[in-house]
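[step 3/7] fold_predict: job queued, chain A
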Amino acid sequence: MLRSMHDLKDYTIGAIDGDIGKVKDFYFDDEAWVIRYFIVDTGAWLSSRKVLISPLSIQHPDWTSHRLAVAITKEQVENSPNIDTDKPVSRQHEIEYFGYYGYQYYWGGPGMWNTGLYPDSFGTPSERAEEERVREESVKAERARHRDDDPHLRSCKAVIGYHIKAIDGEVGHVEDVLINEQTWAIQYLVVNTSNWWRGHKILMAPEWIGEVNWPDKTVSVELNRASIEASPPYDSSEQLNREQELNLRNHYGRSASWMIETVIERAK
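[step 4/7] structure written:
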């Protein structure tokens, strides 16, 4: 199922021994278009410090009560590496963060989460313990190899309002993003076209993007205005189903996302 970024905002992150705080924003990887961290405001218990929580820690999402249970303690969060969420997160910061929590790095492998499509594809606790032993043996080499990497992390909130440029002109602006609740991938940008014609909201998949100009706050797509104007409208009050998604992708001559996932899983 797909979740709106706006709907996920203010979800409560619940640790093993109490609430950590509320989600205020997300960092996504602008190469893979996957949510890598929740930016969480801890409120009064930690002097409103903002902390990063990885989707890898999620155990029991409760969508009805807007709550995400994570397999970490409040003490772990309190003692976690202090990362300034108002500044770019470096790869060194990420390596320190993943080392602190004992997570396997999400980069360096063929899947969205290194070894697979899903955050929980890292295995059972016993398997993770073995992975931790192996990880400790290679962590020094990993630190040296990745210390100068650019992690390509961007704020979801900052992307809202970016102008969408078709091949032959502007067509709208980003109003929301739809996030896959299993993979935490950004599956679609929700584009409002009403400022360019008496239009409607439509969906754009990240793989249709040719270029993002971050300084100019524009997203260029490899589509023309006529095809976008004729695109199936998106109704945010209804859950997008597979038939609608298939109609959308057939309109643009693209493969459906679940077909892509199936091919990747079969190839593993």
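[step 5/7] annotate
The chain has two domains: 2-154, 160-265.
Helices lie at 5-8, 74-78, 91-101, 125-146, 156-159, 225-229, 242-252, 257-267.
exit 0
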